[in-house]
Specification:
277 residues, two-stranded antiparallel sheet, 7-stranded antiparallel β-sheet, alpha+beta
């Protein structure tokens, strides 16, 4: 929430101060508005603030309720840094996060919530996406299929619209499919991604709720209003980011015409991605 920083000074002493030696260029440094916090109607997880994203860790399910961050055109246009592909437990989770080996032999991918490609502008940022607090069990042909298509389209939309507020996560309000690993990581039945564009003149929002399984359906069939996603998840995604009047207007409906989909990506998913083993 915007109350998370000092309203009188405009400074937040708890913001990350780039503890690594990596050079952060203008435009890369997080701003206070990037640390907006969704809220839960059913409970409260531990809020964990990393350099470029924030999450709420749900100990009962050993994964995040949600991950929230800002996705900008400027960052996406930077040259990508090397992808680490090494998962680590999150030392900032007080109760202890899930471990990489909880997923071993489970049949489920270690699915990123904040995608590595969204944070590839910075070694610090991309490394933090490999913390296990940012990971959730995803069926392989979901992770490399329709979820991949949505992630790629989200980056396309961010480039087109300059900046998007993103909240994504598992739908933990539903009974899980089961659990995996020694930590008892819940297997979500579905995942959500919520997108908000507050840039003038076409302010808009949209959400997606997609079953955690292979899909041959067009992606737009899983689009819902932000209000509908909030009902399904028990979360309030943007409680302090805008006025109550604007929030009500933005969240009650969505216009697919303002979010161009890609037939090429859809065909690639159906003919290639869904068939990868």
């Amino acid at each position: 929430m915007l109350w998370a920083y000092n309203l009188f000074t405009g400074k937040n002493p708890s913001l990350p101060q780039n503890p690594s030696n990596e050079v952060i260029y203008p435009g890369d440094q997080p701003e206070e508005e990037e640390f907006y916090l969704p809220t839960s109607k059913t409970g409260k997880g531990q809020i964990v603030r990393h350099t470029y994203y924030t999450l709420s860790y749900n100990e009962a399910h050993e994964q995040a309720d949600w991950v929230a961050y800002v996705l900008t055109r400027e960052r996406l246009q930077k040259e990508w840094v090397e992808r680490p592909d090494r998962f680590e437990s999150d030392p900032m989770v007080k109760t202890g996060s899930a471990e990489w080996y909880d997923y071993k032999g489970s049949g489920y991918d270690r699915g990123h919530l904040a995608p590595a490609a969204d944070m590839a502008f910075s070694a610090k940022a991309i490394n933090e996406t490999f913390l296990m607090s940012n990971i959730s069990p995803q069926a392989k042909d979901f992770n490399t299929g329709i979820w991949k298509e949505l992630e790629e389209l989200t980056r396309d939309w961010a480039k087109q619209n300059k900046k998007l507020y993103v909240v994504t996560g598992p739908v933990l309000a539903e009974p899980p499919k089961g659990k995996i690993g020694e930590s008892g990581v819940s297997i979500p039945r579905s995942f959500f991604k919520v997108l908000l564009d507050l840039s003038e003149p076409d302010q808009k929002g949209i959400a997606f709720v997609i079953p955690n399984e292979v899909s041959y359906e067009p992606l737009y069939k899983f689009a819902v209003s932000i209000d509908e996603a909030e009902k399904k998840t028990g979360l309030d995604f943007f409680p302090e980011l805008m006025s109550s009047e604007l929030e009500a207007s933005m969240e009650k409906s969505f216009n697919l015409d303002l979010w161009p989909f890609s037939k090429q990506k859809h065909d690639l998913r159906i003919n290639n991605w869904n068939k990868q083993q």
